[in-house]
Amino acid sequence: MSRLARALIAGTSAATLISAPSFAGPISNDQTNDAPETAAESVQALDSTEAATGLAIAQANSATGVVLDWSQVTSGQVFTGDVRAESIIEADNVWGIATGHANAQGNALTVSAGADLDLDASQSAGTGTVSALSALRLGEYAGHAVMTAQGAANAIEVAGNDADMDLRIEQSSGTAVQTRAVIEADSAEIETSLVTASSAGNSVNAGGIETDTEVELAQSNTGAISATAEADIANADYGVTGASQAAGNTATVRNEWGYARIEGEQLNSGEVEAITRLGVGAFENGAAVGSANAVGNSVLLSNFGADAYAGVGQVNSGNVSGRVVMEGGWGHSAFATSSAIGNAQSAYICSECPVSLDANMSQTNSGNVYSGVSQTYGGYVGAVTGSATAVGNAATFSSTEPN
To answer: According to the UniProt entry, where is the signal peptide (predicted)?
Structure first.
């Protein structure tokens, strides 16, 4: 293998790429998945137990890379068809904790860089559906319950440590993405509960420590994106939290002690919807908290210790909506927050560092934007708060303390 230690696990669905500490030649990854369906199911049906765990992960194409010296990586991923992940737990009693997680992705690329990295990555998702369901169906009692569901048509994550990273990323999707996290316990008691659902058409996360991170970005989404978090509990003793997040295109760069730059474009024409529903008979000792966040295009740049540049053009023509619906009997307190934004772009730098932030942003929204909160309680509730925010275009700039 000369001076390059490299492993490629065969198949168009999963690959692992590794470069050893020496000069690394070009690394190429090419994956195409045209299967009608890629599915993962985890079903647990039982009477009583101390702990129950369900995990389901489905990916049409998956590639993971570890870079230990300077490397050039080219990756192309294409899929059509459906991707489905379902984690279901059915029980009368879970005396400890019930945990369920479902993750569905069309194209997934993860790279860890301990040295300089040049990355050219493209991901294409055709028509079809990416769906994730995480559900708990409870008869009598659970100590704690956590249900999460995540889904993305295209997802890229790159993390660096003491590296220079030059990332050129192109993502396009016409796939519908649907995620649901559900607790069905309308005759049961649960001490604490959490349900979260998140969906994205195209997603990029990049950054590192003592790393220069430069991203050239092109994202386009036409698929419908929805995330739903639901909980129906007779007695949520110490409270319940439900949260949903949905985005057509999202890109995040978090960096420390290295130059950070992100520029390019985001185009979304798909409908984006985040819904949180909580039905709770009683929540005597804790709060019922519901939140929903929906955005057509989203960019976040955060850099500490060095200069930064943000310049992404955003165009959203899809309808965007966030809704929180909460109802129940009596309880400690209730908080509902909903937000819907056509285009959102934020940039943060360290206020105590000798650094600067340059920005050249443009935002255009023509889609309807709706945010709503509805709460109905039949008994005494100590405090009730509701907040709904709808914004066509939102740009935020801030210098913050390092911590």
So the answer is: 1-24
